[in-house]
Amino acid sequence: MTPAYRRILLKLSGEALMGEDAYGINRAVVARLVGEIKEIAAMGVEIGLVVGGGNIFRGMAPAAAGMDRATADYMGMLATVMNSLALHDALQRAGCPAAVLSALPIPAVVEGYARAAALAHLAAGRVVIFAAGTGSPFFTTDTAASLRAVEIGADIMLKATKVDGVYTKDPMRHPDAVRYDALSYDEALAKRLGVMDATAVSLCREQNLPVRVFGINKPGSLRRIVLGENEGTLVQRGDPPCKT
Asked: Going by fewer Cβ within 10 Å, which terminus of the chain is more open, N or C?
């Protein structure tokens, strides 16, 4: 089947890597994620990947309470580098070429980020993993993902979450929550639906970059999206939102 997209940016939370574990990286979960990414890459889709660091350290988490915010954020960035290296290793072992580009310079460990290098890796068929967020404190990995997606000219940004889309309220606490099938940027911002932070949503709106929020734990969801099927919640310009 023909993919609906030529180039995508996939945003994974750090928590997605730990599965049911309390922290860290679950090897079985990583193997499953890598298998799905490899399948998409085999279709000829160019893949950029941003992963958070919440499974190791999050700048806004209780563990960072009392710390200087910038210092805590830098620690969070280093956590994303660790996750990126783990994904890179798993992809390479699975026979899926990959490269890690870090916004923080760590030359003895990983290649530094440069847009030209990212585009060259993508053109060569490598999955490009963008590490260390934006390289600056006070910005989330959602914002970093939006920025990198725009920089590489991605057709769409795919945000993988624990739930299968964006809801009117937290579906884990409210059984009557209703999932949006489609949503506008303005609606997401006005209702504070938690799609992404406001900076990330605003950047996507300014650059007209569509975002699809979907459940990463649902088998085959990534493949279905890449093939153009309606999965999760699509956030873009256009008609008023509707609910399923």
From this structure: N
Q: Among candidates 50, 24, 25, 23, which has minimal Cα distance to 37?
A: 50
What mean pLDDT comes out for the span 20-42? 92
Q: List the CATH number of the domain containing 231.
A: 3.40.1160.10
- Alpha-carbon distances, residue 223 vs 1, 18, 129, 171, 229 (angstroms): 11, 22, 19, 24, 9
Cα end-to-end span (Å), the chain: 27
Percentages helix, strand, coil for the chain (3-state, rounded to 5) are 35, 20, 45
The total number of residues written for the chain in this structure: 244
Checking if the pLDDT of 199 tops 50, the result is: yes
Q: How many C-alpha atoms does 212 have within 13 Å on its Cβ side? A: 22
Instruction: Judge if pTM exceeds 0.90.
Output: yes
Query: For the chain, what is the domain count?
Result: 1
Q: Which CA distances in Å does 20 have to 23, 66, 230? A: 9, 28, 27
Let me know how many helices (H) and strands (E) the chain has, helices first. 7, 10
Look at residue 2 and tell me if it is in a domain. no
- Residue range(s) defining the domain that contains residue 134: 7-243
- Classify burial at 3, counting beta carbons within 10 Å of its beta carbon; exposed 0-12, middle 13-18, buried 19 or more: middle
How far apart, in whole angstroms, are the C-alpha atoms of residue 134 and residue 102?
Answer: 9
Of the candidate ranges 45-49, 174-178, 222-226, the one whose mean pLDDT is the lowest: 174-178
Contact present, 78 and 132 (Cβ < 8 Å): yes
Per-residue pLDDT, 240:
44
Asked whether residue 186 is domain-assigned, the answer is yes
The reply to whether 229 falls in a domain is: yes
